[in-house]
Amino acid sequence: MRIRRRDVLKLAAGALAAPRIARADAARVLRFVPQANLSSLDAVAGTQYVVRNAAAMVWETLYGVDGNFTPQPQMCEGHEVSPDFKTWTFRLRPGLKFHDGEAVTTRDVIASLQRWMVRDTMGQVIHARLDALEALDDRSFRFRLNKPFTKMLFAIGKSNAPMALIMPERIARTDPFQIIKDYVGSGPMKFRADEWVPGSRAVFDLFADYQPRPEKADWLAGGRRMNFDRIEWQILPDPATAGAALQNGEVDWLETPLPDLVATMKRNRDLAVQIVDPLGNLGSLRMNHLFPPFNDVRARHALLMAVSQPDYMAAVCGDDESLWKSTASFFTPGTALFTEDGGDLLKGPRNYEAARKLLAESGYNGEKVILMVATDIAITKAEGDVTADVLGKIGMNVDYQALDWGTVGARRAKKDPPGKGGWNIFHTWHAGADCINPAPYTALDAGGAKAWFGWPSSQAVEDGIVAWYDAPDAAAEKAAASAINRAAFEDVVYIPTGFFQQYQAWRANITGIAKAPLPLFWDVRKS
To answer: What is the pTM of this model?
Structure first.
């Protein structure tokens, strides 16, 4: 049975009751409703997309990927690399300044990269091969490696968190496992910490001394030319309130309109409604591999054979079946490494009886399973409801904990036992741009204690990732991806719940919104 939203009929009443938001009258002010509350700005210590999206305005990277996933110079004016790919030398472009007026130097760069290398999977690969990261002068620095690394530019320019953001040295010295408290960057917008009201509003002001690159902007590459003096993020977790605010002209841009409201919005001539990210998302059910029941692979297999991707996708996308597809893959459909090798158990018919039997064999005996559900985000709320139903059908004792996304983001990092502040399951999603290959794919890491939340351990997945890094050609990369996909299903690193796309909506007087895997605020205008 497909589970759909039960509260759609309440939306009209919710919209009528929506509190009014002060109108933005100036063309130099943009009011944006993000996908979730902004609980942090540290896109090195955390991986939430809403944090990454805000951080991309405040900080920059040395290189930045363009729309072809090709890294281009950003803070750097260029680089040199030795023929054996063991020595990488970079030079910063002149005139880079932080928001406090201080010049950006290689001291800042090295401290920032050292912090990033602790948290990021690509950074960890670099660190394992690192002999030295050294300053040559205030604008030039060098990596000296003991093993070739051909993907350096992608590593320091990729769009997913942890991002290699360049911060002042004093901030970059923050413990990589602690959230920064100082928000000075060198990007085109300054964060107004004095106006930040978590759960309500975040404000960004134009950095007057920012000098954009001369090239046209292309994703995270090129010139970041801002046409606003001020960008205000309005945190509106209720989708009816957010939709009403957009239709009333009280906000300008809504990142994640509720699918059930899209048809109405499309009929409104004052709005534009489009799919902005063609690479979409992979839904994700994450299990805690450290504690029972999901430390036993049989319990993970039991859940794998019980879930239904069409149920999840119908809950997330509503009646618009054009927005989603089932896929037995950990890689983005339509991209070079896409494969469904090893996904037969997910593709096969649902078998609750076999799942219950396998659970019993794993030793499960009715213990509570803590399901953390971020109810302030439509995606996670919808998928969490489906999972609660599935767990009940296979005889699990569900402890459904309704939380906000910020709380889930903090609690999922805890390795405490589920009954002592930890957890068993949470839902999230992974941008398709992050699932094109193992390099930006933090969620695919299966290195146990150093892996992403859930801490899966699969030597076969790790071996496949190493094989991909060392692959001499595209055919070898594809073979490595197939091996990774098979191993990830065998050990159930996580459960993909389906591929889906989402609409964004904005007022018709807003132009310049780019098709990209994250909201890009440069080149956007309001007439």
So the answer is: 0.86
